[in-house]
Amino acid sequence: MLFELVAHNDSLTRAFSLAAHLLNTFLLLGSLALTGWWASGGSPVAFGGRSARLWLLGIGVAATLLVGMTGAITALGDTLFPAGSLLEGLRQDTSATAHLLVRLRVLHPVLAIGTGLYLVALAATFAARGGGRIVSGLARGLGTLVVAQWVAGLTNVALLAPVWLQLTHLLLADLLWIVLVLLGAAVLAQSAASRVPVVETPLDRAAPAGIRPGAGALR
Ligand code: HEM
């Protein structure tokens, strides 16, 4: 209650604070997901020589964060200026005299559709380039969650955002974010072979190349 950014406060400061809160939640969730991933044996990531993957992932991560933040602003607009019907809501969205929070509501679905298409393409690209069962499983999960979010988001608009659906949409957004973070970790994971230091023993050096233990092994 320190800054009174609650109840009927419709200031832009409140909108920014909600967006920042969502960002913070996503960063915390991402850190927890990565901690669990690495604690259960996930390979550490390697950035060297992977600038294309890094850029593609970075764009997806930044766009998803933006979608989440604009979603929080849309949710605030829905709470402060509830519409009586779908038609009234659409009229409010396009009215030049409506409150800024109402006019900003349209930003979220537009960004969410564009970002969703990008994430589906990204997931399909990573899955097609190999990377094993984990990458293809996560890529499939990401694609499924994007489609589920589109359906939940559109239903949210149609049903004027009932609380149960708001919670479902938020839960799906959290899951989508976690799967994206894990897909990033899996795609950037060092291969196990490149992590094992190759130590040559005196025995290895003495043996002829053809019968050296480990000679020809994948490094
Ligand atoms: C990648 C897909 C999407 C993601 C990650 C996403 C994420 C979010 C998030 C995080 C919120 C804030 C929830 C809250 O703080 O209570 C939100 C709200 C909202 N989103 Fe989305 N969204 C997506 C797609 C869509 C689409 C396609 C639409 C509509 C066509 C939509 C409509 C809404 C509406 C109306 C709200 C406000 C009501 C609520 O709180 O649930 N979303 N979204």
- Helix and strand element order: HHHHHHHHH
What compounds sit in this structure?
A: protoporphyrin IX containing FE
* Helix count from the secondary structure assignment: 9
Helix fraction?
over 70%
What is the β-strand count?
Answer: 0
Mean pLDDT score: 88
Approximately how much beta-strand content do the residues carry? under 5%
Low-confidence stretches: 212-219
- Structural class call reads mainly alpha
**Gyration radius, rounded:** 23 Å
Shape label: elongated
Q: What would a concise description of this structure say?
A:
The chain has 9 helices and no strands.
Report on the structure:
This protein is an all-alpha fold. The chain has one domain. The protein is built from nine helices and no strands. The termini are far apart. Residues 22, 67-68, 71-72, 74-75, 78, 108-109, 112-113, 115-116, 146, 149-150, 153-154, 156-157, 161, 166, 169-170, 173, 176 line the site of protoporphyrin IX containing FE (HEM).
What secondary-structure arrangement, pairings included, does this model have?
Layout: H1 12-39, H2 51-80, H3 86-94, H4 100-103, H5 107-128, H6 132-158, H7 163-187, H8 192-195, H9 202-206
Helix pairs in contact: 1-2, 1-7, 2-5, 2-7, 5-6, 6-7
The chain binds protoporphyrin IX containing FE (HEM).
Protoporphyrin IX containing FE (HEM) binds at residues 22, 67-68, 71-72, 74-75, 78, 108-109, 112-113, 115-116, 146, 149-150, 153-154, 156-157, 161, 166, 169-170, 173, 176.
